[in-house]
């Protein structure tokens, strides 16, 4: 791992990654996080024992890795104010911002930076994240390894070799926790109509999703086979799945993911001003 990592932004995603790094054995004194607000920083300092700073430039002065973890809408101002310090220090830059091209951020930082762009997701908060990573040509193999270790502290990592594929990653994992939460909402509502108390229905639905995900992860069988194994001929599951197929659930999912990827692409264009 790098000698010194600075997080610009100390919100949900930054604190999840920092917590994961510390759990995986990284020394808290090698990590710094910044935010404009002293009370937000005092809380994270007390909880995680890291260094904090309200001055972004001071915080990157001796960093090997800088993680950009502010909202996309303020990224331009934050980066332009950091330009001179980053040009002098030349750290590995990792952006976790949704919808911002690596090139756009690189230009805001003065150009020629080693840039990794990452699309994480919120289950990183509980150590079950799934992140897609893309590196520009300036990133060395050793720096790729550092980025991998950083994001593996909160989940799994998949590299893509074309930046445009991060739009697909956004559709399949970045935004996807919300798809499953929608499924829980719908199953709970339906179970209540079938007579179950809401709390009972929620517990059963969530545990079933956890069980299905764990089976799919641990099994050498593909999801289609695991599905078939639940479907006794002429039985109850077959009837439910038949209904979902007739209602074109696969098409709905495909269309939703296409809309998600299209929006990711449009956001990147809007935010880069192109
Ligand atoms: N929440 C999600 O599902 C996902 C979020 N992301 C990305 O992660 C990034 C961070 O998101 P969250 O942690 O959810 O946001 P958040 O609002 O929890 O955290 C933002 C942090 O930035 C700090 N900040 C604001 N202005 C600053 C400045 N000038 N200098 C330094 N720090 C400043 C805030 O004080 C706060 O600590 C965003 O770019 C978002 O697109 C990416 C994938 C998924
Ligand atoms: O909805 C969004 O725009 C962000 C990107 C991935 C998850 N949340």
Automatic annotation (TrEMBL):
Domain spans labelled Pyrroline-5-carboxylate reductase dimerisation: 163-267
Signal peptide positions on this chain: none
Superkingdom classification of source: Bacteria
EC numbers, comma separated: 1.5.1.2
Catalyzed chemical reaction(s): L-proline + NADP(+) = (S)-1-pyrroline-5-carboxylate + NADPH + 2 H(+); L-proline + NAD(+) = (S)-1-pyrroline-5-carboxylate + NADH + 2 H(+)
Main location: cytoplasm
Pathway terms, separated by semicolons: Amino-acid biosynthesis; L-proline biosynthesis; L-proline from L-glutamate 5-semialdehyde: step 1/1
InterPro entries the record matches: 6-PGluconate_DH-like_C_sf, NAD(P)-bd_dom_sf, P5C_Rdtase_cat_N, P5CR_dimer, Pyrroline-COOH_reductase
NADP recorded as keyword: yes
Chain ranges of the Pyrroline-5-carboxylate reductase catalytic N-terminal domain: 4-99
Subcellular localization, as worded in the UniProt entry: Cytoplasm
Gene3D superfamilies, A to Z: NAD(P)-binding Rossmann-like Domain, ProC C-terminal domain-like
Keywords carried by this UniProt record: Amino-acid biosynthesis, Cytoplasm, NADP, Oxidoreductase, Proline biosynthesis
Function: Catalyzes the reduction of 1-pyrroline-5-carboxylate (PCA) to L-proline.
PANTHER family: PYRROLINE-5-CARBOXYLATE REDUCTASE, PYRROLINE-5-CARBOXYLATE REDUCTASE 3
Family listed: Belongs to the pyrroline-5-carboxylate reductase family.
Record's protein name: Pyrroline-5-carboxylate reductase
